[in-house]
Design goal:
The protein is α/β, with parallel strands linked by helices. Helix content is about 40%, strand content about 15%. Strands 1, 2, 3, 4, 5, 6, 7 and 8 form an 8-stranded mixed sheet that branches. The chain is globular and about 50 Å long.
């Protein structure tokens, strides 16, 4: 389907850590035809009703999504597993049965490794968009587990949001899209290591953000820009990139729920936005 612009866009850099409230970052913006105006960028623990604990932060994030209603949300965790590891022919059934099938993050990783004979399989979309890890990689499996169980599932089972492209978009509900900030930057040739305390890392964050400002976003408050550049973990910048990829994906054709024979219908799809729009002007000052 041809995407209709959503007035509000949320970009989220997720975490499965116990203190996820301080590790999850949330960028919130309002759209115009050509720009996404970033109005806030903050850790999830600062959301209403939130805290440092993972359960509090994910609950507050869900509340924010519902409060914004007709919004589009970019989330940087896998929405599914490789098709070979899923016994269901319907993604919604996979989500409904998730807590029963996987009692813990460790159970998820163990079950996937066992079924894959010790290999870390990737989804079709992971290979196409060159995401760094398998959904059950040691660095990602907790994020996958809690993202699906504690964020997506409550919204899906109450039919209060639509997860793309596995579900048909509904005009009166939030749309949730899977995003990979690193892949978005790499596809746009903007990626240099930016997570760290060194001068080179800060310079890389500043350069990436400046490229986004030239082509896709506007930040009126200089304090927000400082927050993004000064965050040494790069999580604040990742949330903004997630928002940009989501915003730009709205300008094209968003697939509705594909046929069950389509790999994306079970595994999910990573949305990268428009790399050409983000490509840097190498000869500019």
């Amino acid at each position: 389907m041809k995407a209709t612009m959503r007035e509000r866009v949320i970009g989220v850099d997720c975490s499965g850590a116990k203190d996820a409230g301080r590790r999850i970052w949330v960028a919130l913006g309002t759209t115009t035809r050509e720009r996404l105006h970033i109005e806030s960028c903050q850790p999830a623990q600062h959301l209403p009703g939130s805290g440092r604990a993972r359960a509090e932060a994910l609950s507050a994030l869900g509340d924010l999504i519902l409060a914004e209603n007709r919004c589009a949300v970019g989330l940087d965790f896998p929405f599914g597993l490789p098709r070979a590891l899923v016994v269901y022919d319907d993604w919604e059934w996979f989500v409904l049965g998730f807590p029963r099938d996987y009692a813990s993050p460790e159970a998820l990783r163990a079950a996937c490794l066992s079924a894959a004979e010790g290999r870390e399989l990737k989804r079709l979309t992971d290979r196409q968009t060159q995401t760094p890890f398998s959904p059950y990689n040691i660095r990602l499996y907790r994020q996958t587990f809690y993202g699906i169980r504690d964020l997506l599932r409550p919204l899906v089972i109450t039919d209060r949001a639509r997860v793309l492209p596995m579900q048909e978009p509904a005009e009166d509900m939030p749309w949730l899209l899977e995003i990979c900030p690193a892949s978005t930057l790499k596809r746009a040739m903007l990626y240099t290591p930016y997570k760290g305390r060194g001068d080179s890392h800060r310079c890389a964050r500043n350069r990436a953000l400046a490229a986004l400002e030239r082509r896709a976003i506007a930040i009126q408050d200089p304090a927000i820009r400082s927050i993004i550049v000064d965050d040494t973990g790069g999580d604040a910048l990742d949330s903004v990139i997630a928002a940009v990829a989501t915003f730009q994906s709205l300008g094209g054709s968003l697939p509705g729920a594909p046929h069950s024979s389509n790999r994306y219908a079970i595994e999910g799809l990573v949305y990268l936005g428009d790399p050409e729009t983000l490509r840097p002007e190498w000869n500019s000052s």
